[in-house]
Amino acid sequence: MEATALVSLNRLWSAQEVLVRPSPVPAAAGVYGWHFEQPPHPDLDAGRLLYVGIAPRYMANRTSTQNLRKRVRYHYRGNAAGSTLRLTLGCLLGLELRRVGSGRRMTFGKAGEATLSQWMADHARVCWIEQSEPWDLESQLISQLDLPLNLDQNRHNAFHSRLKEIRAQARQRARELPISS
Q1: Which of 5, 30, 102, 169 is deepest in the core (most CB within 10 A)?
Q2: Are 31 and 128 in contact (CB under 8 A)?
Q3: Nearest to 125 by CA among 36, 39, 53, 3
Q4: What is the rounded distance in angstroms from the CA atom of residue 179 to the CA atom of residue 104?
Q5: pLDDT tens digit sequence for 12-23
Q6: Contact partners, residue 48, CB within 8 Å, separation at least 6
Q7: How far from 91 is each of 57, 61, 97, 144, CA to CA, in Å?
Q8: What's the pLDDT tens digit per position in 47-102?
Q9: How far apart are CA 90 and CA 56, in angstroms?
Q10: pLDDT tens per residue, range 87-113
Q11: Which helix (H) or strand (E) element contains residue 72?
Q12: Which of 144, 134, 130, 121 is nearest to 49 (CA)?
């Protein structure tokens, strides 16, 4: 199974390695896996695969412009509104989620996102495999592996309800605070 490349630790890439130009991450469809040298929560183990994602996601009625390079780079330096991985990590790390702009989007604000990007640069490592229809492999991986940071299709995971609750509490607090500039 191709998944061994995501689980084994033979080549993991840091933010510094991925964010250079030209990036080593292919502009292709595939599955990516996130490992953490320091886990974002005390109940999670360090040095192992905790999350998988895909690019592009399955879209029945239109074509996605996403690819591995865009998604991996965005996770390392984007914001929580565009990355469920960043949203999860920031919530687990206790960063304050805030409504921004019109109030519908939620991020950790400029300072919080910078803190999260630095934490990821220090502790998050990524690997990937090219796959033309990655959604099939993603479902297979989530059903077969212990991936505590994945919520979608992952109710069977022991960490699922806790993570869902932590994220829900962060969103509720954000709704109670004024919209951030």
Answers
A1: 30
A2: yes
A3: 36
A4: 9
A5: 999 999 999 999
A6: 7, 35
A7: 23, 32, 7, 25
A8: 999 999 999 887 666 677 899 999 999 999 999 999 999 999 999 999 999 999 99
A9: 23
A10: 999 999 999 999 999 989 999 999 999
A11: helix 68-77
A12: 144
Closest CA to 89 of 38, 18, 143: 38
Closest CA to 180 of 121, 119, 125, 107: 107
Beta bridge partners of 99: 106
What's the token pair of residue 80? 């929580």
Residue labelled with tokens 């999260």? 116
Verdict on whether the full-model pTM lies above 0.90: yes
Q: Token pair 């990524």 is at which residue?
A: 126
Interacting residues of 168 by C-beta distance below 8 A, sequence separation 6+? none
The amino acid that residue 101 corresponds to is G
Q: 């080593």: which residue's tokens? A: 24
Q: Are 125 and 32 in contact (CB under 8 A)?
A: no
Task: With CA atoms as reference, report the closest residue to 50 among 88, 24, 79, 17.
Answer: 88
